[in-house]
Design brief:
1 helix, 3 strands, binds zinc ion
């Protein structure tokens, strides 16, 4: 068994309230009421989780609304 890359919430660093291990990976639910991130994949890296969460705005992404 590999160590989960992100055992705790990538946003608030809190422990998961619930973890679901399935064929697609290990999904964990944040139990922190004050946290905007509900679900993350413990098999992904911290950076990947933050990108997937879509709640973290990178400074360099601002002003690029030309699509
Ligand atoms: Zn959290």
């Amino acid at each position: 068994m590999a160590e989960p890359l992100t055992p705790n919430c990538p946003l608030c660093s809190g422990p998961p309230a619930m973890v679901i291990g399935g064929a697609l990976g290990t999904q964990a639910f944040c139990g922190n009421d004050g946290c905007t991130l509900l679900l993350w994949d413990r098999s992904l890296s911290l950076d990947d989780n933050l990108l997937n969460a879509g709640v973290v705005k990178l400074p360099q992404a601002e002003g690029g609304d030309g699509a």
